[in-house]
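Entry 14. Ran structure prediction on the chain below.
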Amino acid sequence: MRKHLLLAVVPLGLLAACESTPNPYPNGPGFYGATIDSTHARITYVVPPKMTREKAEDTLLLRAAEDTLEKGHSWFRITSRTRDVDRSQPRSSLSIGTGTTSLGRRSSVGVGVGTTIDLSGGPREVLGLEVMMGDGARPGDPDVYDAADVARTIRARLGV
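Output, structure tokens:
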């Protein structure tokens, strides 16, 4: 009986000892925003699977334009861009394996094939922008965009 208990408790202990990291994007693909102050914001976009990079970048730029307009500003400057791959999502898997047990003088052996099937969907692309919003005359910098013009142009291009 002790061996049965040991066989049941040891795998649970090993499972509990596995290190896991928290997922920074628990809701999956979509936008994650952070307001830095009244004129600065950070927008992160976890790109849905199979979306082209061009469409993802347009979608992120549209979000920056919409945020700028919602906050009552007319233009925004991109102060930094990031591109990363998120590999921290929880890993789900299905495992099939083998096992043995011993009951006093009798023992039994289970024989089978062991395999693991990854169900997590793989890494996700993450794009980010940090923007500064402003009003009045738009600076002549190539990283400064008219928010209304960007929103109109990209909505037409994406068909939204």
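Residues 76 and 145 are 5 Å apart (CA to CA). Will compare against last week's run tomorrow.
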